Amino acid sequence: MKITQHLVVAFVVLIIALIIIPLPPFLLDFMFIINISISLMILLTTMFIGGPLEFPIFPSLLLITTLLRLALNISSTRLILSNGGDAGQVIKTFGSFVLGGNAVVGFIIFIIIILVQFLVITKGAERISEVTARFTLDAMPGKQMAIDADLSSGVITDEQAKERRINIQREAEFYGSMDGATKLVKGDAIASMIIAVINLIAGSIIGMVQGSMDIAEVISVYSIATVGDGLVSQVPGLMISVATAMIVTRAVSESNLNEEVIKQFLSQPRVLIIAGISVSMMCLIPGAPILQILPIALFLIFLGYSLIRKAKVVVETGVEDQMSQMMDEENNEVEFYRNIDNVYNVIGVEPIEMEFGYSLLPMVDERSSGNFIDRIVIFRKQFALDMGVVIPTVRLRDNGMINPNQYLIKIKGEEVAKGEVLVDYFLALDSGGNSEPIEGIETIEPAYGIKGKWITENEKEMAEVYGYTVIDAISVIVTHMSEVIKKHINELLSRQDINTLLENVSKTDPAIVGDVIPNIISIADFQKILINLLKEGVPIRDLHSILETLSDHGVTIKDTDMLTEYVRQKLKRTITRKYTDGNSIKVITLDQEIENIILNSAKKNEHGTYLAIDPQVVEKIVERVTEQIERVKDIIDRSIILTSPIVRIYFKRLIEQFFGDLTVLSFNEIEANIQIQVIGMIKLEN
Q: Higher model confidence: residue 580 or residue 160?
């Protein structure tokens, strides 16, 4: 005898046993997950069937699932009242998620969920079942007469007539059973509400009388338990109620719900156009959200117009082979996008994209002897050596909607920079301002904003003699692209890049990677630290040192910003090389008064550390920083502000919204053998 033949019987006996036998929290969690899984399977099944007779055991399943939910409710109530509100991880998780840290608001949301389940879904499904059962029984005599008439006229055979009679009988029995089964769902919803009240009131009394908890702790514990217990019952109950309504309203469908919805909505394209126009009229209402209204309206109009146009093309062709070909192409497209993976390919965005006007295409097309791609490859190698990051593939596209000499640079699908170059011209830059004037088309170099002139090849030699820096058009684009990538590299560092970098380290030192990730720090926090470094232009090539630092400090420190500061100090040789000229560095320092203000203003909350400084003080600090930068701009090319180690991160956060590219270093990030030359000091009072 096979065990599977009695599996359902054993399951029902187990459900009854749950009412009597106390369950430990672990097994109760297991049964809750089974209950949710069964309810979800039932709901999905009702959506994929063509009619109710394809799922005739549904009324019996309603009884079994209702009995299971009640048994689990009783078991969970026993644990809540006898175990100090601890009824397993599932109940705790559901309750904590809905309460969201606020017991009052969370409990109100829970009550709303119960009311929606009881008054809308359950009551609606019950009413639909009653009406459908009545109409089905009333229509039975007429259907029987129609079968007899078809049999008498020879339209159907005896076997077909017999099959139709059986289907009518099964349909009547099904809806009759459904009429009664929905009462079980309604009763289950009422019982769940009563049990929730018992859990909260009785649990609170037991917690205060028999336990050692204060009233606030009692309310918190039993609120979570009550909400969690109610939800793990109501969520499966909600799915069963929806499945009940779904199956009784699908009586006349010939295919599954997904196909029917798409087919019937797209069969009336004029409706889509009228709906789109009507929705667009909402923009005339004062205060209406135009950014949300217009895309929806335009989409409906475009979809309706596309469907009408497609229908006209099919009608007007008149040639059978062309129609067949079009149908084949349409079917191929449908089949292609039936695979959901192919749809995901449509909505993806490229990390880096460049779009070019048609005049620039010969420069970037390898078939036209353009060497733009080769220059990108060289830049990728050099950037990896400098910063320790491999930039992703740059997607090149043509764009007929922009100026023919223009190009766009996009990061993750959004434009971040653009420029304009002249083909077969050279850009002459007078960086010193002392060169002889030359003839040319005035312009602004896109990467650094330097004034320049576009000159022809005949004028190139003379411009170099006069002291101009002459650059070809491709170099202008590549330089602009490289500066944009350097500025946004922290946005381009993906989780996959992190895994690849760690795999590369594991080839030579697998122990350090295994010790740190994920034992000491998660891969997500590790990514945040690397992004913090790249955001301020600190190379991450020395991953061994970074991982060693995290191994030393990550056990006691979990703040990624503080860990970043320790990593920066570990990488001080790299930082020193990047910002020093020989054995010296010219810096602007902070006055001790400003550092004390910043330290005293640092506050902590659950989201991290923030500065609570008077806006007038911030304004004064920004003014003094601006004055010092303007004062020393003729002495140094790049302003560097030097602070104490504990102040650096806070001052950087304070000032970066006003000076995004300003370099802020601490004393611990500079090698001891480097001579520090202070050329300015930022003080609140001059």
A: 580
